[in-house]
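Predict the 3D structure for this chain.
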Amino acid sequence: MALFSKKAKEKATRLFYACDIHGSEPTYRKFLNAAKFYDVDALVFGGDLMGKLLIPMVREPGGTWRARLQGQNHHITSEEQLAEFKRTMQTLGFYWQEMDPEEYASYEGQQDRIDDLFDVLAKERLAEWVTLAEERLADTPVNVYLCGGNDDTDEVLSALDETTTERVVNAENRAVPLDDEHELLTIGYSTPTPWETPRERTDEEIAEVIEKLMPSVSDPAKTVFNFHCPPLDSGLDTCLKLDASVWPPKPVIERGQPVHYGAGSQAVADALANHQPTVGLHGHIHESRGATKYGRTPAFNPGSEYGEGVLRGLIVAIRGGEVLGHQFTSG
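Done. Predicted structure below.
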């Protein structure tokens, strides 16, 4: 006679989430390695793939080089120094171009040419990253879901469509399946910043994008919101307030202390509160690692330390539209 027993529950889906890598080669490789290291079912990236700077490396007579990095002049005199300098730039997420003095001089005052070269190099690196992800994940069931953030240009992000492969999904501005019951909805915009980055939108525009995409979602309660911008005044969006009347922007000081404020999106906060998704995954504000809740919906920002080659991340286990557990990671 058979014993009565409860029906076995479906296995939880484990996600690894990270964001704001900003071109850092070692940090991105750690992100891909997280699939095996943390034994997860999917890798989700929350925006800001591109690096921030292009460093010219000028060839000099005698096989030496000169470059300026982080306010310091560098005179590179050996292959060992050259390799170390490039490793530093890879960690920082910077791009570089080798050129002779005449070519370097030709770029003076030519900002459009500099911007075009930046986009070419950034797009090349992103295409290489897509290929690397496919190679690393080819023999696994793990997909990686990529998107841009406010710092990424549309031209560079076009590499995601041009090179998307079996394991790499361009998730932005669409609902895509995560497993048999959950979907992922991804939006990479942020509210305006003092830095005037390429993909900033007003709160009203972000709200319009969210509501335009919601009909594509099968069940909001079983949807993961991957929104680059965190919800306003949530504790996931706290950063220094900057004075945008000067360039570069500088911290606002009151009574001898720097002022902090919430730089997130009210539209994102409203979407979490009104639609009650499974979970909200956010980034954008590197220093505001944390967790909060909107009704039944937990929301997270793992933060970022990409410039030190450190991958800050988050493991989330979901099943049946609920978060069963989470763990912040760093390494």
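Residues 1-8 have pLDDT under 50 and may be disordered.
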